[in-house]
Write a structure and sequence with these properties.
Shape: rod-shaped
Number of helices: 2
Strand content: under 5%
Radius of gyration: 48 Å
Helix content: over 70%
Structural class: mainly alpha
Order of helices and strands: HH
Distance between the termini: 126 Å
Length: 127
């Protein structure tokens, strides 16, 4: 946008020399240098402040993401604990049912089952 080349700087220097004079030109150059230095420092401080704000925002996002991950880990852990409790409960229930029905693997049937007749189901009485 602003393109100042060597020729433009020479013209500015000659005009300044003619307007200010050779006696006051070194003092003017020092003053101009101080102002340019202050402007550069202000720009550097502003840039550093913006960089710190950006870093702080990234840190906040990272911490929020980490908090979300921690909550997901908690949910997974709770689900695993619940699954383990359900497994224990099912095993206890199966063991209790096996004991009450005497379905242990070592138990054998001592009485044979009577065959069912395919005919009528009413008992026969002698007449």
């Amino acid at each position: 946008m602003f393109d100042i080349g060597f020729f433009e700087l020479v013209v500015i220097g000659v005009v300044t020399l003619l307007v200010v004079g050779p006696e006051r030109l070194p003092g003017l150059a020092r003053t101009a240098g101080r102002w340019v230095g202050r402007a550069r420092r202000m720009a550097a401080n502003l840039k550093a402040e913006v960089d710190r704000e950006i870093a702080a925002e990234e840190l906040k996002r990272h911490l929020a993401k980490q908090a979300g991950i921690d909550s997901v880990h908690e949910i997974i852990e709770q689900t695993q604990q619940t699954g383990a409790e359900i497994d224990r409960s099912l095993n206890d229930t199966a063991a209790t049912a096996a004991e009450s029905l005497d379905l242990s693997p070592t138990a054998t049937k001592t009485t044979p089952e009577a065959p069912h007749s395919s005919g009528d189901h009413e008992p026969k009485h002698p007449a």
